Amino acid sequence: MQRFVDTLFVSRKVSAVPPLPWAWRMGILSLLGAVAIALGIIGYFDYFANATRYTLQLFLWGLVGVFALVGFGLVVAELLRARHSYKLQSEELSRANTWLKQLLATAVDGIHVMDMEGRLIGCSPSFAAMLGYEMAQMHAMRITDWEVKLTPQEIKQMFSTLSTTPIQTESIFRRANGKLIDVSIKATLLEEGGERYIFASSWDVTQRKANELALRVEKERAQNYLDIVETMVLVIHPDMTIGLINRKGSEILGYSPQEAVGQNFIDLFIPARMRDELREVAHGLLAYDGVRAFENPIVNKNGQERLIAWRNTPLLNEAGFVVGILSAGEDITRRIEEERMLTLHARQAQMGEMISMIAHQWRQPLAIINAITSQMRLKAMMQEQVPSALITQLVKIEEQSTHLSQTINDYRDFFRPDKPKEHFNVASLVQHALALIDHALKNSSIRIEVDALANVMLYTFRNELLQVFIALLKNALDAFEEYETYDGEIKITIATQGNDCVIIVVDNAGGISKEVLPHLFMPYFTTKNKNIGTGLGLYMSRIIVQEHCGGTITVESQAPYTAFRLTLPYEE
After folding, report:
1. Nearest to 501 by CA among 550, 430, 567
2. In this model, does residue 459 exceed pLDDT 50?
3. Beta-bridge partners for 298
């Protein structure tokens, strides 16, 4: 570990102190220089006294000595400077070493250094404690002594891919007592003096893993509880994204939890016409001052609208701040449909009773009118000079009174609440529907064409299916009036396809836009004036055909034509 101290904490290299033999040589050189200086002094004075050659040589030796002493002084000065620098850096190195030891001693992370063979060079006490060893026991240990998850080959491969950029991974270590712990590791490659080392830091995350597992188990348990509930449950974040959804919610919305979580609830599931209103409601809930119970439609994955009754409550964190909305929603579409059907049936029953009363009141006067007309016609026929036109008019009066009586009977039967299944001919039922609105068709100059390609008998609710035909015909009549069509035509085709009877009703009243088509069978959806349409005719037709009669009803439109296609199972 000591060599890493220089790398991490020391900024300058320590200069080398001159070795002892060199100091001896410098001492001898200094002594010789002193002798040469002495000789030079002697030669100097002797030269002026005797002026001999010998004294000149002594003088030169003295000069040499002076230069030697100057050089010696310079060497001594440099030596003193180097020694002082060495002392300062030694103190700095000592402090750095002390700091490193203190850092390692107080480090919470398990710091350890290994060579490229996985041998442990040094470690912090926390690493030894994490593995359950004493520091003295850590010497000469290898990574394979504690690593469990990776094989020696995998360790070698990992070492070869390390770089100076740290990587983080997770593994499993074996403690001294054999217990396994989960660890998180951050490792990097160090290079020093041409050698490569692995510097790593480890954390014991066993408790965190246990907490995550417990949290995951608890979340799964809570999810299971929510999935049992037959109510849609959502957690919506402040940004309106879905944080949680249960099984029932997935069924209603048509999206799996993986598809729904993270999606913006309002943008994806709320009809465009109500998004602004729902945002205001949601913001009110987040402000802890909103409507907690309300009803609104949602659009599922198939584009169908479902009516949901919501109960909402804000979600608070530990500090008491609102962090989301917990919403429980019940799909009340079927219940509302059933209530509307019951209401409609009740009204039909009341209407049937009223028509029965009217029929009872009208039957006798109509019978009297018919009887008087018949007597007048018979008397006229017995006379010789009676205009034939009079007899013809009397016959028409009889026919109209009979037709009026039959029409009252037909409407009375139509509104009967106890409608059993019946065997009936489809073409006859179509003609019956046309007869019930014959007056309106003639007033609008609508041409009717019935093309019965097959003689089909059905066994189903006759009067309810009659109601469907009347609704389709009345819709066509309303469209003719809206577009002021003067050459209106309705064509009804009856055919078979496999074991199904197919009835197609086509009109040329202008067609239906592509934007309207997906909503045509939704409750209370209408493009007509509120005084004209309620938005229930086609909706009730779909309920009757699909849920009561076991068939299907679809619509296609391409201006100016609109075609409704009914497919109903029939018996041979």
Report:
1. 567
2. yes
3. 306
Judge contact between 24 and 52, C-beta under 8 A. no
Instruction: Single out the residue of 399, 499, 504, 491 nearest to residue 456, CA to CA.
Output: 499
Match 């490659």 to its residue by tokens: 189
What single DSSP character describes residue 272? G
How would you classify residue 166: left for phi > 0, otherwise alpha for psi between -120 and 50, otherwise beta? Answer: beta
> Contact 168/185 with Cβ under 8 angstroms?
yes
Q: Are strands 180-192 and 195-204 parallel, antiparallel or unpaired?
A: antiparallel
Which pLDDT does position 495 carry in this prediction?
Answer: 93
Q: Does residue 159 contact residue 198 with C-beta atoms inside 8 Å?
A: yes
pLDDT (tens digit, 9 = 90+) per residue, 530-558? Answer: 555 556 678 778 888 988 888 999 999 88
Tokens of 7: 């790398």
Mean pLDDT across 215-238: 80
pLDDT of residue 5: 38
389: number of Cβ within 10 Å: 8
* 15: DSSP letter: P
Dihedral angle of Cα 515, 519, 520, 523, to the nearest 10 degrees: -150
- What is the share, in percent, of the chain residues with pLDDT greater than 70? 76
* pLDDT per residue as tens digits for the range 272-283: 888 888 888 888
Helix, strand and coil content of the chain, in percent to the nearest 5, comes to: 55, 25, 25
Secondary structure (3-state) at 571 = coil
Residue the block writes with tokens 């002094």 = 41
Neighbouring CB atoms inside 10 A of 421's CB total: 13
Distance separating alpha carbons of residues 351 and 298, to the nearest angstrom:
35
Among 47, 229, 207, 242, which Cα is nearest to 130's? 207
The residue length of the chain stands at: 572
Would you say 148 and 172 are in contact if contact means Cβ atoms under 8 Å apart?
Answer: yes
Element (H, E) at 66: helix 53-106
- Asked whether the beta carbons of 96 and 5 are under 8 A apart, the reply is yes
pTM over 0.70: no
pLDDT at 20: 44
* Structure confidence at residue 14 (pLDDT): 40
User: Which element (helix H / strand E) includes 314?
Assistant: strand 305-316
Q: How many CB atoms lie within 10 A of CB 489?
A: 16
- Give the CA distances from residue 337 to residues 70, 142, 340, 462, 546, in Å, rounded to whole numbers and listed in that order: 117, 75, 5, 21, 14
293-299 and 447-452 beta bridge pairing: unpaired
Q: What stretch of H or E contains 390?
A: helix 388-414
For residues 186 and 100, is the Cβ–Cβ distance under 8 A? no
Hey, is 327 helix, strand or coil?
strand
Could you give the CA distance from residue 69 to residue 72 in angstroms, rounded to a whole number? 5
Nearest one of 357, 283, 274 to 324, comparing CA atoms: 283
Look over the chain and give the mean of its residue pLDDT values, rounded to a whole number. 79
